[in-house]
Write a structure and sequence with these properties.
single chain; about 450 residues; alpha/beta; Aspartate Aminotransferase, domain 1; Aspartate Aminotransferase, domain 2; 2 domains; seven-stranded mixed beta sheet; binds pyridoxal-5'-phosphate
């Protein structure tokens, strides 16, 4: 619903914004001459800016968050009720709503057992890294402390999360980084590291094994992976890849930490991305879609086996997980998250993501036959990427300015899309689509029609 603002109110908001708000990952110099983008309201799959322009939001809030769409009164109501009942107590104590949500979440994650609450994807990942480090100290005399992360994956914005992020431009100017994090090669088949295309999934996983052997398996405690790489270019794993990754990690006694911050809670057409591939994680982190961004909540979920390691010797004053997140004790997060899950279940949104996502991907593949600039279409559920190239034969990536132009033109036609942005020195060339899981077939057609128009204009 468009929020009605008078011209005076609009002018005032723009002035205050220009004067006092520091926008995320944004160069502010152009705001000397042009107004910044200011969003003011949303309903369903649509969002309105302060000037009353309406957009079909195929980015779920710019960064893959609003899984159940905008303006959900049910979630607003439970937030209000919970805030009035008890807004907060430190996470050293439990609360009824945390217990109820944790129980509901674990129902969707067979094999997992314990939920640790915090506020952002980065924080959830930091908790996981601390768990791995503490296990290294408790069980292996500090030796098995290294965490391997994959080239092209992103795990967050703090220095340690950047230390485990395989995107060189994201890391630029923020070093020195936390020691003990080591990169292993990506698994993007379209950008295969091998001449021979046979068995790419197995060969790509074996690149991980090479790094483990180089570092020494006795020094490696865990790997961290996105089930489908998000900001690094919507990279779906090749056939057989994760089975081989699982085999390798089992062989060397290495924990698997799956970062579901983007893929989690229905986005890919299953509750969690790893569930498509038969992976058995030891730790799963999640954030964005957990409460569809109606409240800031993230979770670090572990198996009971991992949890058990933290209660073995009560006489040891360091035996337990000595971590706290102040706002991890806020109760509106789990209240919103529980209602979010109920909506997803009642409306069949995981199934809708699978069904409409498959349709959208097929329609985008048709577009690929018409526009040679589309080098690759990949994704799962309502999480799809289009890699743009100058030339299909050489796969030379288009410059990121082409994507900036593409998304700006989509906006002019009332469509918001995402894109890889200042992440790599040469591969900022993927358009990302991640609409709310409520997307209809007609809206999928609308997305494709607008994109076709814009590809014609490029
Ligand atoms: N992990 C992944 C895969 C992400 O895409 C992000 C953010 O985009 C994060 C972690 C960090 O989440 P947050 O920005 O909530 O700290």
């Amino acid at each position: 619903m468009d929020q009605q603002l008078t011209p005076e109110m609009k002018a005032q908001i723009v002035e205050w914004d220009k004067k006092h708000v520091w926008h995320h990952i944004t160069q502010h110099a152009p705001f000397e001459e042009q107004a910044p983008l200011i969003m003011s309201s949303g309903k369903g799959e649509y969002i309105w800016d302060v000037n009353g322009n309406r957009y079909l939001d195929a980015s779920s809030g710019g960064v893959w968050c609003v899984n159940v769409g905008y303006g959900r009164e049910r979630i607003a109501n439970v937030i209000k009720e919970q805030a009035m009942r008890l807004n907060f107590f430190a996470g050293t104590a439990g609360s009824p709503i945390m217990a109820e949500f944790a129980n509901k979440l674990i129902e969707k994650m067979p094999g997992m057992s314990r939920v640790y609450f915090s506020n952002s994807g980065s924080e959830a990942n930091e908790k996981a890294y601390k768990i791995v480090r503490q296990i290294a100290h408790k069980k292996y005399g500090g030796k098995k402390h290294k965490i391997l992360y994959r080239e092209r994956d992103y795990h967050g914005t703090t220095i340690t999360c950047l230390s485990s992020t395989g995107q060189e431009e994201r890391r630029q100017q923020y070093g020195p980084f936390t020691p003990g994090f080591v990169e292993f090669p990506h698994c993007c088949e379209y950008r295969s590291q091998f001449e021979d295309s046979d068995n790419y999934g197995i060969k790509a996983a074996q690149l991980l094994e090479e790094v483990i052997l180089r570092e020494g398996p006795e020094t490696v405690g865990a790997i961290v992976i996105e089930p489908i790489t998000a900001g690094g270019g919507v990279i779906t794993p090749p056939e057989g890849y994760y089975q081989e990754v699982q085999r390798i990690c089992n062989k060397y006694n290495i924990l698997i930490h799956v970062d579901e911050v983007v893929c989690g809670v229905g986005r890919t057409g299953s509750w969690f991305g790893y569930q498509h591939y038969g992976l058995k994680p030891d730790i799963v982190t999640m954030a964005k879609g957990v409460a569809s961004a109606y409240a800031a909540i993230s979770c670090t979920v572990t198996t009971e086996a991992v949890f058990d390691l933290f209660k073995q010797d009560p006489s040891d004053k360091f035996d337990y997980f000595r971590d706290i997140s102040t706002f991890g004790g806020c109760t509106i997060g789990p209240a919103a998250a529980l209602e979010n899950m109920k909506i997803i279940e009642e409306e069949g949104l995981v199934e809708n993501a699978a069904h409409v996502g498959e349709y959208l991907k097929t329609q985008l593949e048709v577009l690929q036959t018409q526009f040679t600039i589309i080098g690759d279409v990949r994704g799962k559920g309502l999480f799809i990427g289009l890699e743009l190239v100058e030339d299909r034969e050489t796969k030379l990536p288009v410059d990121e300015s082409v994507l900036a132009q593409f998304s700006a033109k989509c906006m002019q036609h009332g469509l918001l899309v995402g894109r890889t942005n200042r992440s790599f020195s040469s591969l900022n060339n993927t358009i990302c689509l991640s609409p709310p899981l409520t997307l209809s077939m007609e809206q999928a057609d609308e997305i494709v029609a607008i994109m076709a128009k814009v590809f014609h204009q490029l």
